[in-house]
Every structure is written in C-alpha cells, then in structure tokens.
Amino acid sequence: MCELLGMSANVPTDICFSFAGLMKRGGGTGPHRDGWGIAFYEGKGCRTFHDPHPSCQSEIAQLLRRYPIKSRTVISHIRRANRGQVSLENTHPFTRELWGRVWTFAHNGQLKGIKKRPVSYFQPVGTTDSEHAFCWMMEQIRMRYPDPPRRDAALTALVRDLAEEMGALGVFNLLLSDGRTLWCRCSTNLAWLTRRAPFGAAQLIDEDMTVDFAQETTPDDVVTVIATRPLTRNETWTVMEAGSMVAFRNGERVG
Amino acid sequence: MCELLGMSANVPTDICFSFAGLMKRGGGTGPHRDGWGIAFYEGKGCRTFHDPHPSCQSEIAQLLRRYPIKSRTVISHIRRANRGQVSLENTHPFTRELWGRVWTFAHNGQLKGIKKRPVSYFQPVGTTDSEHAFCWMMEQIRMRYPDPPRRDAALTALVRDLAEEMGALGVFNLLLSDGRTLWCRCSTNLAWLTRRAPFGAAQLIDEDMTVDFAQETTPDDVVTVIATRPLTRNETWTVMEAGSMVAFRNGERVG
C-alpha cells in the first residue's frame, strides 16, 4: 500500500515535520520502495518533485527536509508499485490544468477495469490505473462544468460522486486538489488532524522527532494534515470511515 | 531578455556543464534576476524545477549543478520579467499534456495582443504573454490533430506555421518539445551546436570552467545544445537567422 500525505492551511506552512515521518516510511520503516512525489501549491502555481527511487535515500527528499517550502496546500505520495513500471511518468502526484487551475492527484489502491473507460481531453502519460482514473475524473468534471461552477459545494458534490464511482472499481484512497480545495476520500485508510491554537508539541511515530508547534505558529494558524495512518503518537487523529470524503480549504473543513 | 537553454541527445546526458554557464547569467554575469526553471524528460515522464528567485543564489539550482539528472531532452529558461508578476505560476518552462505526451514550452520576447486570442482546451494559470501563447499553440495543434499525426514532419510543419504566426506579434524565441522532438525558433537570438565524436574540450564563456567531453562521452553520443547566446568560447556555434526554425530529435537535426 502507498502512503498519502496532504496538508491544507490558512497560511503558507512548511510540511517538513510531517514529511520527515513520511519519508522514513519510504524504505525505512515502511515497504514503499518504489518512488515518491510531492506537490506544493504556491499562489496559483504548483511545484512538484518526483523521484522514482526510494525516498529514504533520495537526495531530493533530503533537500526538501532542509529547505522549508511553505505552502497552503500540499499533496504527497510514496509508492509501492503494484501496477505499472517504476518510472518517472508513473510517479504520483499527477497534475493537469483545467480552468487555468493546476489540479493534483494522488491515489492508493487498484481499480479493476478503469482502463476501459474512454478518455480524450486528458490522456495518461504513464501506465498506472491511478493516472487513468485521474484523467477520467478530470474529463467528467470538464464535461459537466466547461467553466468553473459558482458554488464550491457543487464541485465538491461532483468530486464525491466521481470518487464513489471509482471506489466501486476497487480501493480508492484519494487526495485531489485544484489549489483551493483539498478533497480526501477514504476507501480503506485515511486519517486527518487539524492543529489550531492553543498549539502543543507533537511527536512523530516513525522517527524520534518532536516539534513544538507553539514555537512555529501564530495564534491564527489553522493547519490540517491528512495521512494514510496517523503520523504522531500524542495527538487525536480522526480516522475516516470507508467510503467517506472530506474537503478542506484554508485548513478548515468545508465538506 | 531571457536566456533559453535546450538540449537534445541520443543518450541520457547531464546538462550540468551548460547549466553552470547559464546559472551564472541568472544574476551573476547577466541581468536575469527574476526566476528560472528547467524541464528534464526522462522516458515519457518530465521533471520540472521552478524557482521564482534569482538562479545564482538558488538552493535548487545548486542541487541541480551537483546532482546530474540525465535526460535526452531538456528545456531551461532564466527569466527577466517584463510582463506579469514574478511568481511561481509565471515561471517558465510551462507544461501541458496532449496525446499522452508532456509538452514543454519556454519563450523569450513579448507578443502584442496575444491575450485577445481565445483559448479553451488549455488555459493559462499565470499572467504571462508566454503561457497564453503556449496555450493557444497547443489548442491549434489539438484542433488540427485530435490524434498525433503519423508523420513527424507534419507536426514540425504545423509548429513552424504557428511559431511564424506568433512571431508576427513580436519577439518570439522559442523552445518547445513533446518529449520526442525539440523545436527551436529564432526571432532575435538563438544558437546551436552539435557535439559528436571526436569529442574535445569546451570552455565556458561565463565561468572559468572547462570540460573534456572525450572523458564524459562514448563515441556514439550525439548531443545538441541550443542557447540564446553561445555558451562556450572554443567551439563553433551556428547562430540562427531571424525567423528560422530547427528541429532536433535524438541530438540530430530533423527539420
């Protein structure tokens, strides 16, 4: 199984602490030796890093641990290959542009028969089920809304329906964002946590590392972290139910 | 003016040497203090790095100088902002997917009235003339060829026509690739050089650095480098004529 990590915050926030825990799972404490990737939104732009090599050895991963890129929306994925060759084009997160927004997608699971679904506007570059599912979802969104819907809730409802349809084909744990909203859909494993004032200390499960967020934040900060499994041992994570979806914007739950 | 750098090779080749020269121009020897970006194709995948900050100070640029990513097709750009805010989404190269291929675009120049041209399939994320021109070109290519044309020459002919149409709007020095072909269109400044056996030593103009390619290559390697201005002082560069375009594939000229 792959590890997913997402963040939604109301101020640009670095994800170094959570990423440190996730990286350990990339060949260190976890079995995810087949590549990793991360997407950081900065304004309307999106910066992605992909590495088909194990994250615990990756030089780029080390850079990111040291170099605190601050972002309000982050999606990351550590891969355990079960479909598709290990290669750059098969490494999540995947990105496409729609409505002048950069969309980012990371998934764990397998989807039976997904490749029979026709895609035209958006076509996979690699050979994964996941990228095909992403292209199919983007195509449905574009067909339903050639222009962005006025109400964000309408978009969330559509994403929920599409995720449900994908979930019927297999395991579909999903992180998806258009740079504004972060949609998180749980098929088997996904948990989230919102940090806000008063901030305390958090201790990673996978590495001997503690951060006192009271030192790192201002009282108005709201930061939600989503991960396949809880990353810290002394905080209360909400473990999502199978088939459920949540949406976050600026760190707050909006759906 | 911005600096462009491209490479087309028949074997995965690192671009560290040329990049070292280009980086010096990013605030060092040149006036290009407004960000830089680079795209490396690896197989069908494409890895991009963008930094809105001056390249001569950038930590990511330093990483890339040390970390020899090997690629057969590279497009890089150092920006001097003249239109659009300095931000991640305005930093070249831009990418879009068409036909399951990642397309990459970098441009220097300004295009009068480009934003009046309608775009629908592909929409700009940022505010530059360049990204709008890219979206417009991609849309023309998609409309003319919903599926990829059988003959590469047909695609090259279309790119040439579109580049000419853009060139009528202003300065349009262009590097464009679909991961197979690298198209290079000169409006004011673009020069190229093909290195092949017997390889010799090359000396950078912008930095006191020499590489003996005989030590770095095998006799079958063919590597073409394209840059705004020649990067080395002891090799013979072909300085392109205004309005001309060349196409490279696997290091060899194909159009």
UniProtKB/TrEMBL annotation, chains A, B:
It comes from Azospirillum oleiclasticum. Residues 2-251 form the Glutamine amidotransferase type-2 domain. It comes from the Bacteria. Keywords: Glutamine amidotransferase. Gene3D superfamilies: Glutamine Phosphoribosylpyrophosphate, subunit 1, domain 1. Coiled coil: none annotated. The keyword Manganese does not apply. The keyword DNA-binding does not apply. This is Class II glutamine amidotransferase.
